Automatic annotation (TrEMBL):
Residues 1-20 form the signal peptide. Keywords: Disulfide bond, Repeat, Signal, Sushi. This is Complement component 4 binding protein beta. Disulfide bonds join C49-C76, C107-C134. It comes from Molossus molossus. Residues 21-78, 79-136 form the Sushi domain. It comes from the Eukaryota. Pfam families: Sushi. InterPro entries: SEZ6_CSMD_C4BPB_Regulators, Sushi/SCR/CCP_sf, Sushi_SCR_CCP_dom. Gene3D superfamilies: Complement Module, domain 1 (2.10.70.10).
Amino acid sequence: MLFWFMCYLVGMWLISGSAAQSCPDLLPVDNSIFVAEDVNGQVLGTYVCLAGYHLVGEKTIFCNASKEWNTPTPKCHLGHCPDPVLVNGEFSSPGPVNVTDKITFKCNEHYILKGSNWSQCLEDHTWVPPLPVCKSSKYNRNKCKPQRC
C-alpha cells in the first residue's frame, strides 16, 4: 500500500508540474501503479494492475487540448473467476482461472456432457457459454423404450 501511495504521489507531482496542470486530479485506482510521463508537452499516464488483478477500462490516458482526461479512470478488479464446478467430470484448469481464460470440460465414464465443452471467463466474472453438466448415461437408457434407443 505504501508503494502504491508513493507511486500515486509521484504521478500526481509529475502531472501537476507539467503543461497539463489544469487537468483535474486523477482519482486513485486501488491495486494499481500509475506511471506518468511528459510526451511532447502532453501528460501521458499508464495504469498497471498489481498481480492477481485485471484492468477494466483504458490502460493509457492523456490530458487533451481541452484540459480534460480523454477517458474515465480505469479500475483494477480481482482477476480470479469463480471456480468452475462439474460434478462427475473434470475441467482443464489446474489452478485459479483468470479473466479471459478458456477452459474445457470432459465427463467421467458413463456420463454425457450437456452443454458446451468449453467456457470463457469474462471481465464481469461470468462464464460464457454457461458451465455444462454431466448426466448419467444410465439414466438415458432407462428412459428409452425397447427398440427406440
